[in-house]
């Protein structure tokens, strides 16, 4: 079993392991460290209450702004000939997990 961690960035939680790239919502402040909630290394599991203060996950920014898939939103009201179409592409930041340390 590999070593992995659960971190919180921007209000969302991600399960990460070393050498893995993750897509998170676009980060405005790239210097903030993620909160480490859990670290598992084989049979040894450390759970924070609510965070692990001594543990650290080192991240590197691969791409600062990356566009996601287009999301289409259709609004329709029956019998009133009202239709509306809105679309957008969310912006993400791609991060590389370099090191997980206890």
TrEMBL record:
One of its GO terms (cellular component) is ribonucleoprotein complex. One of its GO terms (biological process) is translation. Pfam families: Ribosomal_L21p. It comes from the Bacteria. Keywords: Ribonucleoprotein, Ribosomal protein, RNA-binding, rRNA-binding. The keyword Ribosomal protein applies. The keyword rRNA-binding applies. GO terms for molecular function: rRNA binding; structural constituent of ribosome. HAMAP family: Ribosomal_bL21 (MF_01363). This protein binds to 23S rRNA in the presence of protein L20. Part of the 50S ribosomal subunit. Contacts protein L20. Belongs to the bacterial ribosomal protein bL21 family. This is Large ribosomal subunit protein bL21. It comes from Candidatus Woesebacteria bacterium GW2011_GWB1_33_22.
């Amino acid at each position: 079993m590999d070593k992995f961690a659960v971190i919180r960035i921007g209000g969302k939680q991600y399960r990460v392991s070393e050498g893995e790239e993750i897509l998170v919502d676009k980060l405005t402040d790239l210097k903030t460290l993620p909160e480490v909630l859990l670290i598992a290394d084989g049979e040894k599991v450390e759970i924070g209450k609510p965070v692990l203060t001594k543990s650290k996950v080192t991240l590197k920014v691969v791409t600062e702004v990356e566009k996601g898939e287009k999301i289409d939103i259709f609004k329709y009201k029956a019998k009133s000939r009202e239709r509306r179409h809105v679309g957008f592409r969310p912006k993400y930041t791609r991060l590389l997990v370099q090191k997980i340390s206890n």
